[in-house]
Amino acid sequence: MLIDQASLPGSGKTVCVTGAGGFIASWMVKLLLEGGYSVKGTVRNPGDPKNGHLRELEGAEERLRLCRADLLDPDSLREAINGCDGVFHTASPVTDDPEEMVEPAVNGTKNVIIAAEEAKCRRVVFTSSIGAVYMDPNRSPDAVVDESCWSDLEFCKNTKNWYCYGKAVAEQAAWDFAKEKGVDLVVVNPVLVLGPLLQPTINASIFHILKYLTGSAKTYANSVQAYVHVRDVAQAHILVFETPSASGRYLCAESVLHRGDVVEILAKFFPEYPVPTECSDKVKPRAKPYKFSTQKLRDLGMEFISVKQCLYDTVKSLQEKGHLPLPPQPDDSLRIQS
Asked: Which residues form the NAD-dependent epimerase/dehydratase domain (predicted)?
């Protein structure tokens, strides 16, 4: 069936996606193109082969332009964002080094907001993280984590959790600066993101699962983690951009699982891999999942892909991309239903 391009929500609109070659951003570019948008994606080097997957996306030839830009180079951002109806600011340094994490994240975000204000963009959607939300030692285990929660900066500093510290500081700076500049800002706070890779390289969140399949992790930690599918994260960003009434922060999560549950699911779907069966901590009680609410996103019509499907899709993608050896197997078609 032929799709009438003019009827698509993004028809005639141009948006900018920063750090377009990244895991989440690549999916945003894919879904935005499918939605009829023209996309200007910022990358460090448009000619780099690692951005080739973006050019292969449906609609890319007609409506995707890769722009050379650096978060700390205001002029390059101005050029990329000029003429855009909106900006999806996803580019961010991922490192445990406080110097490398905080300053570029904060100053890069300020530069994006300045460029968006000058270009008179309708809205900026900023990718933050659960890291800016849930790191709080004083929160009761029974308290529900939602958009009103913020990570405790002193606690992050004292425990040297620079990722969460950087995310919280960068998001706060985004709110302060957007208010000062009169820019309409909406923030999405995803948890650990899994799912199929569009880009050729493995990112940190995918390695979290890969290590349980290659035999490099002999045990699993006595800890919990919240998970969400990459497609849902990309979809959430577009949903809050397209919904005029959307405002504030949006927690994006599907399930909180103990690592023991994760390896159990992996072993059930993929018994041919050396998935660990022992916990590294046999002394402390099993860590309990925290409670969270995604009611704000659900109220916009968001429906989440299950965490089981998410784990399954991640492994299948790793196999297809050649990051995992393909085991000999007779029939794969029935296994996702279990």
From this structure: 15-247
